[in-house]
Amino acid sequence: MLRLLSCSKLVTTRHGDSKIGMAFDVMGYEPFQDSFLDDQARERSIDYNLGWFLEPVVRGDYPFSMRSLIGDRLPKFTKEEQEKLASSCDIMGLNYYTSRFSKHIDISSDFTPKLNTDDAYASSETKGSDGNDIGPITGTYWIYMYPKGLTDLLLIMKEKYGNPPIFITENLDDWKRLDYLQRHISAVKDAIDQGADVRGHFTWGLIDNFEWSLGYSSRFGLVYIDKKDGNKRKLKKSAKWFAKFNSVPKRLLKTTNNNATVTVTSVSV
What we know:
It holds the Pfam family Glyco_hydro_1. 34% of the residues lie in helices and 19% in strands.
């Protein structure tokens, strides 16, 4: 709540044509099976993941599903705070890596939420009702490659949240990274073709970093840090591909709002 309000305060202090925005760490969701209950579970999962932080800066309050299920445990904004929050961001960032299946959990007094997202009454599953993973498992244990989830989220931003200018601020994985990168750039193109206002795509990251509990064992960088050779920087195959991708002549595709562009090309390394 404090982070959201701090964003609204920046709006009153910005200078000139500066733009203010927030980046949201999000997952995509698919229904566990083709049923009304799991369709609704998917909607709640999105609310508790993306909507939790996005809806206040778009409409001035948390999603209705959160208000109805969490009740008094969810902080309340004053009318003045709601007015400051609504439309307080000019641009949006999405950090996207993977998706999950969303499975309905019956609302019951016997169910005790353990995590802050459990109030959605929807479990997050890596396998669907057919027993298959949502996508190929990658080199990082929690990341399953599912580019369609990125397209879906971008279209949700378009259709539900007023189609704000969007930057993909994090996206990549170390396993089969060329395939991952190409598929997700293609997923962004699919969303742009359908009218999503995507302004840019950033991979994560430039160099290998200390990745939370995985430390240096998970290497997200386009540039490899060789700790056995004086921490020398070495370009990975994906870095060379990305350099070529950004340097060859490209055809720009116009969208319905004439703002976003995407490159269409094929590059091999």
